[in-house]
Design a protein that fits this description.
By secondary structure, this protein is mostly helical. The protein contains ten helices and three strands; from the N terminus they run H-H-E-E-E-H-H-H-H-H-H-H-H. 35% of the residues are buried.
Length: 214
């Protein structure tokens, strides 16, 4: 069953990933091609071909087509960088780019606009992107809004694998923060009434864990 659930998630993400533009490596920035705030304000972005982050410096590179091919480089402290990334999470039509963008934004989950984009991505049309958003949300500072968003995924997501991952994420948060009666009540209901046996069993296990029985 676990293998089948994983296969569902991987298959869904693969549909988006296969359409991802092929970029083999980071190329040096062409002189004069560096994007400026003026470019972003006046050029209509048509296609993002790459979102990448330097693991050592944390710098971000976004390669895109506007009126011309441009490469925007900088850090997540730059509001123009953040705005392009947030817009990509919310509206870009390629699942692979949305997934890469979530990876880059992971370092700025305290930013309200980034946090809101992550919540939005929990309902992305691609299950692989939703799973990536779950992984990021699971490592950020939680709160009532996060519990509510994760609980909606548990109750309504169409993919069983994503639902069970959301259950696990809620359990981790509640173990650190203390009980949430709304979440506990929802787990109790799902453990007895949900149509999927994997969800019922995972909710039952979650309740036992939260009650200290495991």
């Amino acid at each position: 069953r676990a293998a089948a659930v994983a296969a569902l998630v991987v298959f869904g993400f693969g549909l988006g990933w296969t359409l991802r533009p092929k970029v083999t490596s980071l190329q040096p920035v062409t002189p004069g091609a560096q994007a400026t705030a003026f470019d972003l304000d006046n050029d209509r972005i048509r296609n993002i071909s790459q979102v990448a982050q330097d693991p050592q410096s944390g710098g971000v590179r976004i390669t895109m087509d506007a009126e011309r091919r441009v490469t925007l480089e900088g850090s997540l402290d730059d509001p123009h960088i953040r705005q392009v990334l947030v817009n990509a999470v919310k509206g870009y039509d390629n699942a692979g780019i949305r997934r890469d963008t979530l990876d880059v934004l992971r370092a700025r989950t305290h930013d309200p606009a980034v946090r809101e984009a992550l919540m939005f991505a929990l309902h992305d049309g691609n299950p692989g992107v939703r799973l990536a958003a779950l992984n990021t949300v699971n490592h950020m500072e939680c709160g009532y809004d996060t519990h509510e968003a994760l609980l909606k995924v548990v109750e309504k997501d169409s993919n069983v694998g994503v639902r069970t991952c959301a259950i696990d994420a809620l359990v981790e948060h509640l173990e650190e923060e203390g009980p949430d009666e709304t979440v506990t009540s929802a787990f109790e209901k799902l453990a007895s009434t949900d149509q999927n046996p994997n969800v019922r069993m995972r909710c039952l296990a979650a309740l036992r864990k939260l009650q200290g029985n495991e």
